[in-house]
Protein: Queuine tRNA-ribosyltransferase
Amino acid sequence: MYKLIRNEGTARRGELVTPHGTVQTPAFMNVATCGAIKGGLSALDLKELKCQVQLCNTYHLHLRPGDETVKKLGGLHRFTRWDGPILTDSGGFQVFSLAKLRNIQEEGVTFASHIDGHRIFMGPEESMRIQSNLASTIAMAFDECVENPAEYDYARKSCQRTVRWLYRCKAEMDRLNSLPDTINRKQMLWGINQGSTYEDLRIENMRQIRELDLDGYAIGGLAVGESTEEMYCIIEAVEPEMPKDKPRYLMGVGTPENILEAVKRGVDIFDCVMPSRNARHGHVFTWEGCRNLFNAKYTLDEAPLDESCDCPTCRDFSRAYIHHLFKSGEMLAMRLCVTHNIYFYNTLLERIRKSLDEGNFQEFYNNNIRKLDTRI
Structure:
């Protein structure tokens, strides 16, 4: 259940109540692809880093260790030791990312595993069954994410197929949630808006999928080749068509600037691998901009990564030490920087919520929109 607390313009402050806890929105979901944050963090670490939601990857967990194995071990919550909400994607993004290894039909998609090449079939029913076995809090509908730019006719046909798949997803989830051996019989289903960069397709698709009265709605198929201006235009076109009483999730986005812009346009929830991926390559986000810890200027710099940050890394370690760790190939460098970036992202969303509570989001936006993505 989603509760809208207040608006500032189109920006929304709300709460999402789930079977595994309440999420304060706007919120960032922390990507634990295979059940762990890349960079050596566990679910227990996430609690100290202000995390609210963990996102796990259906496709990867289906391959290893196998969704049936996870079910036998009690579901993702027991398996990973994370006791808050978990969202699982549907595997639909792999329709996009494994374009050279797939074959799309009305029934579903045949993949070649990126691990050993064996053939995998996944359709709406298979995706729902895998996610039910994983026992996540929120399951995403199975969809096709097309690469931008896409031909209009292909994008239109893909949208129509995604809607047909959504009806099949809902029917299968209703069936699964009625079974006595299902771990999470209150699993929620969120639909995904598609339509490439065509506003008319996006609007038509959103009007169609909102008829199912799902638990939440995502805007998918963005940050996959289009410009940021195109992305913002699509959000603005779709937002008026999205139910006001349901959470809105922008999939796979993004930078601090992207998040501020999307919150301003009415988005509630985000996920992105950027904080952990960038951190593993020495790039950290700070309230003054982005730092590259490989730069020689940090050799003798005894300041923390961000002098205004109180994360575990900034409390105890210097830029010089972390610079040395990267240069020495020490894994600790990655863990310390991932810790900082995850904390930074969750603090950013926390401050956005505070600004909305206090009615000064526009001021917060103006003070930070050009600064946070600047390279120091």
User: Anything to note?
Assistant: The two ends are 41 Å apart (CA to CA). The chain has 15 helices and 16 strands.
